[in-house]
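From the shared-data thread, chain only:
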Amino acid sequence: MFTAKATVNSIFREHAEEFCNKHNVSDHSKKVIRAIVNCRTVSLGGRIQKCDNCGDEIILYNSCRNRHCPQCQFKKKEKWIAERRNDIFPFQYFHVVFTIPESLNPIIFRNKKQIYKLLFDSSKDALLSISENKKYFGARIGFFSILHTWGQKLNFHPHIHAVVPGGGYVAGKEKWKRSPENYLVPVKVLSKKFRYVFLNCLKGMIDTGEISLDNTIYEDRTIFRNLLDTLFAKDWIVYVKESFKNSDSVIDYLGKYTHRIAISNYRIISSFEGKVKFLYRDYSDCNKEKILDMPVEKFMKNFLNHVVPKRFVRIRYYGILSNSTKRKELKKCREYYSVKESHDHEQILGKKFQNSYNLIICAKCGIGKMILSDTIPALNIRAGPA
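Structure, as tokens:
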């Protein structure tokens, strides 16, 4: 007997109602659940495609397009990557990761939007200030950052991935400057700067009431002050994960991070008798792939912990790659190094997706093309928690 592969979507379809009845789920998370439950089902409508050779028909249901849905990220990712091809500087690239201590998690859970923004701002300030310092590099750089909130075991682990070109603009000398090979700025200095900016801003935001400690283990200010003392004395983990020699390797690498969600469907092995089995990589054991067995209720709760606040932007651009200056600065840099701008990204993207609706080759006869023959309207009543 054929059994469909378990997915995030199928797990929520089966257990969402019971889960929401037992737990206090926010309206925003309920909206995400409804999108995941209804994705690529008759609830969202779809289209019927018919082979122009043998007459075979297939039904394709519409996607929810929610950014937390594992079924809806591929096209967004490919489109984003294609559009970024002209944002690549002619420098070596570095992948810098900023992490924060786990002891801050209770505060983050209570103030996700504020802390996530603080994480972006602190890592940005650290990178820009250290790189512009003549003692370390002495040039104005540009980069983009991506927020991830998960670890391999679906645990809560907020961190920033920054993709940084190894070069920048020296305003005083009016020239562009490359970093030494495989080196950008001292990581220990970067880590200390990041820790200093983050903790000082955190303290200030708590003092002004922008961040709340209510209903956390740090509600007692004495406990919170002790935490600050501990965190100021502790080394924070900031590291350079990889470096890249050319733009093609940068582009290929970006796809792994830009539109990733907490867990992809390919990692899920099964969902049976209240347990979800999924693959993870154990970084403490030579990056070996292992299997984790987790109760379905915990799996769903952990997944929803990674739903970002409403309208929160997970990919941000800074320095000379900020949206306001990027086009002008990239043009100057290309002119300085005599690098021609590529115009093939739209063509590449078009080839990937021109077949989406009416040029799919028939799986039955292998000759005809699947032509759109009819549409299926969406249902007024959709599944998922109320």
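The chain has two domains: 8-68+348-376, 91-262+306-338.
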